[in-house]
Write a structure and sequence with these properties.
Helix content is 17%, strand content 39%. It has 721 residues and is an alpha+beta fold. The strands form 9 sheets. It has a 9-stranded mixed sheet. It has an 8-stranded parallel β-barrel with strand order 2-3-4-5-6-7-8-9, surrounded by 5 helices. α5 (152-170) packs across α6.
């Protein structure tokens, strides 16, 4: 039995020594943003259901995440079905469901969204979902198809089909939709394009009865985001549909306050929605400079990692620091003023349901050990906890704040301290660690060490007990110290799954966790975790090359070697595989050239670890040279006062599906023509309420190319006639 007592810490809280002193003043009368959610975009296809459940328990129940980012699948990943790989038909008002990759969406929803949502709502928090498609020219998603970017109608069909499938099949409605992840960053989504899409998507969302609204602009950094905002700031048809301003942080971070002030003037929240190098410093700046209501972790970066052993999950460097904020600051919390008189000590304060939470961030490089006096707290009992040097958090006991609202406590260097309103009664202990070392075995190895740790809010003594929950038939596991926090486990002699339960108790409560260890009968073969081509993803002659990418992994960390092979190519083609320019000699990528004949090319990626050899085949289809559509005729005629009939006749030399989009190029000042069916070859246009010249343009798009034709129409005043 091991007891965790923090006598020295309690004494330090009660008897303050003479150290550097800082003061933090809380002012609940000064309010800032409301926290709406903590976000993540989960993606780990090698994960097992056991790992998924542990990962989500950690992410939601402990870390405190509440929001998921998801997007339609684009690109050419092996075994992955894209959302709309080719235009479903020639009518953007008609969804041909057989053309959409619904199975991929269903798998993701069942694997991630539903269990995540269930956990969030079980805690009494609101779950939110935002959709963010990517179209990077040089990335794994690939360039946006011409028919999708040149026709707002086709884009809106792409988006609303996705949203409708989520709602109708799974009963889940997305809260926000981003037109393009990082617009203008290696893609064709310039401000005018994004504006056209929003103007078309917004009314369609309303007409379909979807609650989803637009998140904008989601630029690669704050400068790009601000430029997009400025480009569309006077577009009255855009802003009724935008309910959230968002930005990323790759590059400039200087425009956060500009975005904040613009959003505040329009009464909409802001959010930082992607950055791969998140720290508490970034979190603090986003919350205080941008008044971010949403804040996002990209992937599981810096917080959680799913190991490749099928059983274990690892907490990463920023997990405990972020937990000190996210676990205690829940959606609906309002940030209030918290002013520190020491620049090295940053402070945050929040009020939620009448309860106050204070976070002291003493983890900058120039931080130091010091006494901190917090002033302005409501009287009551508060729990105090901390993490030091990014290690597992520890509870420091319950403190009582008197009517003067003052609490003084020692704060050590490189720590994050949270002061939270204690709900009363006795709280259960928190399990801060439960793992096996090593995390898996390969026979004949048969011994692991099980380790657990825990902390108690009231600093009650914490005890541990390990038991064997399940083991393969014939195995006889022995636990050397079952009543200790750490115990060797021997006798894992039969290949299969071993599950151990650790019971963590204080005098009042019992909490259990489980650890799985898989014993493999022999060395595991390497895994090919990803296989795709890009730059370009869709090859159309005269283009005749693409980049092949693969990602192998070996569980036992055996040294592996690989080989690419051309398994099939059309007659007359002569494919050559070369190392990409500037790539390291051991890079797994290859440039495939010589794909000069239309047809299917099959490439095999093979990897061996000296024990096992595995392979996967990837097919790249080279399309014949494409020719643009031909518009034979386009006409406009007035068919009633204030309206006209527009019609276009077009054909495609290659027999491709054609889609149309009518738009207004010119109209008298103040006039807003309205098209009945802008995505059809023929449509009526109304709202021609002023005399003058009108120019309407029809854009006709096939698989990769477009053609346009203007038609002019002069509307005369009745007196002019």
């Amino acid at each position: 039995m091991k007891k965790h007592a923090f006598v020295g810490l309690v004494a330090a809280l009660c008897t303050v020594t003479m150290l550097h002193a800082a003061e933090v003043k809380i002012d609940a009368a000064v309010t800032h943003q409301t926290i709406l959610g903590w976000s993540v975009n989960p993606w780990q296809p090698w994960m097992t259901p056991w790992q998924r459940d542990r990962l989500l328990d950690e992410a939601v129940n402990e870390l405190g995440l509440t929001r998921i980012r998801y997007g339609p699948q684009n690109g050419s990943r092996h075994g992955v079905v894209c959302w709309e790989p080719v235009n479903d038909d020639d009518d953007p008002e008609h969804i041909r469901w057989a053309a959409f990759g619904t199975s991929e969406v269903d798998k993701y929803v069942e694997t991630w969204i539903k269990p995540f949502k269930q956990r969030v709502e079980a805690l009494g928090d609101p779950f939110t979902l935002w959709i963010s498609p990517s179209f990077f020219n040089g990335g794994s998603t690939g360039r946006v198809p011409e028919w999708l970017v040149r026709s707002p109608g086709e884009y809106v069909e792409y988006a609303t089909a996705f949203l409708l499938h989520l709602k109708n099949r799974h009963g889940i409605e997305a809260d926000h939709y981003v037109i393009c992840n990082e617009p203008a960053n290696g893609n064709l989504f310039q401000p005018q394009v994004v504006g056209r899409m929003i103007r078309t998507l917004g009314p369609r969302l309303k007409a379909l009865g979807l609650k989803t609204r637009v998140q904008f602009p989601d630029g690669v950094n704050t400068r790009v985001s601000w430029n997009f905002i400025q480009a569309l700031k006077d577009d009255a048809e855009v802003w009724p549909w935008v309910t959230h301003l968002s930005y990323h942080l790759y590059g400039s971070k200087d425009e956060r306050t500009l975005i904040r002030d613009f959003a505040k003037a329009r009464g909409i929240p802001t959010g930082q929605t992607e950055y791969m190098s998140q720290t508490t410093e970034v979190l603090y700046d986003d919350l205080t400079l941008a008044d971010a209501s949403y804040w996002s972790i990209y992937g599981w970066g810096r917080v959680l990692t799913v190991n490749h052993d099928g059983a274990s999950v690892r907490r990463e460097s920023e997990y405990w620091n972020f937990r000190q904020v996210m676990h205690y600051v829940r959606p609906g919390a309002v940030r209030i003023e918290a002013a520190s008189d020491d620049a090295s000590l940053r402070s945050l304060a929040f009020v939620h349901k009448g309860k106050t939470t204070v976070v002291l961030l003493n983890d900058l490089k120039d931080s130091r050990k010091q006494d901190v006096t917090v002033k302005g707290l409501p009287a009551g009992r508060y729990g105090v906890c901390r993490t030091v040097n990014r290690r597992a958090y520890e509870e420091l006991g319950v403190q009582t704040v008197a009517a003067d609202g003052t609490l003084t406590l020692p704060v050590v260097k490189a720590s994050v301290v949270t002061v939270y309103a204690h709900p009363g009664g006795n709280l259960p202990p928190t399990v801060t660690g439960f793992d096996a070392s090593p995390t898996f075995l390969v026979a004949p190895a048969s011994r692991v060490v099980l380790a657990a740790s825990g902390t108690d809010p009231e600093q009650d003594p914490v005890t541990f007990k390990w038991t064997v929950a399940s083991q393969p038939a014939g195995a006889k596991v022995q636990l050397a110290k079952p009543d200790a926090d750490t115990t060797p486990a021997t006798g894992l002699t039969v290949p299969g799954d071993y599950v151990f339960t650790v019971t963590v108790s204080d005098p009042t409560h019992v909490v259990t966790r489980q650890v799985k260890v898989i014993v493999f009968a022999k060395n595991n073969p390497p895994e090919i975790l990803d296989l795709h081509n890009r730059i370009p993803i869709t090859v159309t002659l005269p283009e005749s090359k693409t980049l092949l990418r693969a990602w192998p992994n070996d569980l036992e960390k055996d040294k592996w070697t690989f080989d690419w092979k051309v398994m099939k190519q059309p007659a007359g083609a002569n494919v050559v595989l070369d190392l990409p320019p500037r790539a390291k000699p051991d890079a797994t990528a290859r440039v495939a050239t010589g794909m000069t004949v239309a047809g299917d090319y099959v490439f095999r990626f093979e990897v061996t670890d000296g024990h096992n050899t595995v392979h996967k085949d990837h097919t790249v289809t080279v399309h014949p040279e494409n020719h643009p559509p031909v518009i034979a005729d386009a006409t406009a005629r007035i068919d009633a006062p204030g309206s006209a009939a527009l019609s276009a006749k077009a054909a495609d030399p290659d027999g491709d599906t054609l889609t149309h989009w009518w738009w207004t190029k010119k109209a008298p000042a103040g006039v807003k023509p309205v098209f009945d069916h802008p995505g059809h070859a023929s449509t009526r246009v109304t709202g021609l309420t002023a005399a003058g010249e009108y120019v309407f343009t029809v854009t006709v798009v096939d698989r990769t190319k477009a053609a346009e034709r203007d038609v002019k129409l002069t509307v005369f005043s009745r007196r002019g006639r």
